[in-house]
Amino acid sequence: MSSSKRRVLIAGAGGASLGTETLKALAMTGRYEAVVADVSPMAYGLYQPQAAAGHVLRVESYMDDLIACCQREGVGLLVPGAEATLKLINGARQRLLEAGITPVLNRSEVIQACSDKSITFDVLKKLGIPVPQTRVLTCAEDLDDFPVPCIIKPATETGGSALVSAASTRTEALMYAQWIWTAGLKAIAQEYLPHSDGEFTVGVLRFGSWTGSIAMKREFPCKLSYLLKNEKFLISSGYSQGLIDVFPEVCAQAERIAVALDSQGPLNIQGRFVNGMFYPFEINPRFSATTYLRAMAGFTEIEIFLNHLAGEDSPPKPQIKPGYYLRSLAEMYVPADRIKNAL
Predict the structure, then answer these.
(1) pLDDT score of 104 more than 90
(2) Where, residue-wise, is CATH 3.40.50.20 in the chain?
(3) Going by CATH, does the domain composed of 6-104+331-338 fall within 3.40.50.140?
């Protein structure tokens, strides 16, 4: 371990995920050394060359193993690399602090409000933020007067757009809602926003009086970036790529959302620009799997936040490098005798 580098642990690092992209972004800084932990021995991030070390943790004793791993590796900063680990780390925030480990998180209230979309959009509406019409579905009658076409999706656990469907009719909408109910999840219906004026992924980092943001206008050149693409609908996937540039109206509205929620940390907002207004349809209280592309563009959000947590002065607003930022999947060979075992 380099004594001049601060040590960070990334909890959760499946292939092409938030964790693996965070690892690459941290490697760019030259100031942070990242250890990776995951419950799967096949997690891609465990074997990335940028990782200083990789560990497999047991599901049944996850938090005990995670704390022990941090202490053994000399780690003082803990970054969630997946939605599941975000929830676990947030729930154990006080225990981690008592163990000398700082969770790299937004406020608990923001995480709670944004982790259930039925709450998120209700909160934003009450705060005066324009949002698409959204309704919790508990039975077939809840769809009777809801406008179609619409989007049906779970209120929680929609990373990568899981179980998100587009419905042309109420019959289709009910069928998709029943899939979600069968999975034991809460379903919501959301107004379908046209994408003709652009879909955006926006990162907003806010702490104290410092606020910075970066917007990507998404492009959909291949199946990697969308779940559904036809004459009626476009549903994006969790893999953003496209044009990073100065989009003042989009960024200004995203920053208003962060202020309204009193976000104190990372916030990732997805939305569409319709009739001169940016409407959010997904808000996640964490860094995004786009964080490495943002770092390439000059918006080093995770480094800025880690430096803030370490007590450093706030930096000037980053200057971004406009252009198209594209992505693909990467392959890796791991010999059988190098597959890691649980601690």
Answers:
(1) yes
(2) 6-104+331-338
(3) no
